Amino acid sequence: MTGMINQVRPPQPVRIGALVPLTRPGWVEAGRHLLAGLELAVGEVNDAGGIGGRPLELMVRDTAADPRRAAAAVDELARLGVAAVAGEYHSVVARAAAARADALGLPFLCSSAVLDALTEEPTEWVARLAPPQSHGWRVYADFLLDAGHSRIAVATEPSVYWASGVRILRDHLAPRGGTVVELDARALAPAAVCDALVDHRATALLLLVGLPEPAVSIVRSVRRDQRLAETMIGAPAGQPEFAEWATLLGGDGAAVPFLRYLPGRLGPLGARVATALRERLSEEPSFVAFEGYDTIIVLADVLRSHGTDRGRIAASWPHVAVEGTRGQIRFSRRPGVSVWQWARTPVQVVDRDPAEPGRFRSRHAG
Predict the structure, then answer these.
(1) Tens digit of each residue's pLDDT (9 = 90 or more) over 219-272
(2) C-alpha angle with apex 30: 27 to 35, nearest 5 degrees?
(3) pTM
(4) Model confidence over 76-111: pLDDT tens digits?
(5) Helix axes 91-104, 160-173, angle to 10 degrees
(6) What pLDDT does 9 receive?
(7) What mean pLDDT comes out for the span 160-169?
(8) Can you tell me the distance from the alpha carbon of 45 to that of 295, in angstroms, rounded to the nearest whole number?
(9) Quick check: bond before 122 cis, omega within 30?
(10) DSSP code per residue over 181-241
């Protein structure tokens, strides 16, 4: 008589949904870095035993910078039984995802988007690691003033995110004697942007536009216009952080200050993760990769402590105290911010060194 063989079933995974822009018109390079950080942390969590012996599984969905696609992905992931949703880079996309997560009662830890009001009303379901735009862009405005720039031009395209940035800059600069003039990047050719900078006597031009175009064409035109030899080009949203910028612009892409959410110096955990990310990406990791890693580290800690019940996960945001790659992560409420917010995200203004465009220089800390 043949004996029965008892097969031991592997433990069911704990599933986390991941929203990432992986195809155009999404910022694909940012998405690749975000996913690298998410995946690295998932691998480390599982190597350490997972969540109470259950493996952590990432269910990745490409948002392609499309808010409707992101909202549909949140619906799908909720039906598939994920414990929480993580990620996203584009603010308008994260806003759509946050609205659906709030409506469905699904915890969402937003990695990288910065719009202050990710949801119309305050919500208990959403927390965020990136700083609110009002904080980061005020730091950038202070950098402009400290560098002697009070006549600022912004080349813009239609977007809630860009419009919010212009408003923050104007509100912060105006009481300090600064002015902001908007140039419609859809209506003005790059040469006309240069003419407008001369007409307005602007000393700084901020690129609130997409990459590669029209950002690359505008930078090249300004760099080649002798009338604008002393004009600073800036990109507060962080386009110069990624290798694509340096590849497309070379030396023209240096000395373009942008916001970077990293400390001046990484601690032991951050340094170790930087090495692992560098190997995974075959290039220097951006701050977005660290945001992805920290997202999973926070969620893993919450899942170990509070289990996989969605309500308990959301209720845990104010009790989080996790050592991340960029400092200790704690969430709190901030005026004007509709989600649970990490209040001490490091903020720097950095640029690429003209003498060595592959190296970054710190210009200002907030």
Answers:
(1) 999 999 999 999 999 999 999 999 999 999 999 999 999 999 999 999 999 999
(2) 120
(3) 0.95
(4) 999 999 999 999 999 999 999 999 999 999 999 999
(5) 110
(6) 81
(7) 97
(8) 12
(9) no
(10) EEEETTTS-HHHHHHHHHHTT-SEEEEES-TTTTHHHHHHHHHH-GGGTT-EEE-TT-GGG
Q: Residue 355 class from Cβ within 10 Å (0-12 exposed, 13-18 middle, 19+ buried)? A: exposed
What was the pLDDT predicted at 6?
Answer: 57
SS3 content of the chain, % helix, strand, coil (to 5): 45, 20, 35
Q: Which residue has 């075959």 as its token pair?
A: 282
State how far the Cα of 265 lies from the Cα of 268, in Å rounded to an integer.
10
Q: Which tokens sit at 291?
A: 């945001």
Specify the DSSP element, H or E, that contains 3.
none
Residues 237/208, Cβ–Cβ less than 8 Å: yes
Residue 111: closest CA among 90, 125, 92, 134:
90
Q: Is residue 3 pLDDT above 50, yes or no?
A: no
Cα separation of 208 and 239, whole Å?
Answer: 10
Joined together, the tokens standing for residue 340 give 């649970």
CA angle 72, 118, 31 (to 5 degrees): 60
Mean pLDDT of 270-293: 97
User: What residues form DSSP beta bridges with 337?
Assistant: none
Distance CA 48, CA 46 (A): 5
DSSP string, 253-268: GSS--EEE-S-SS--H
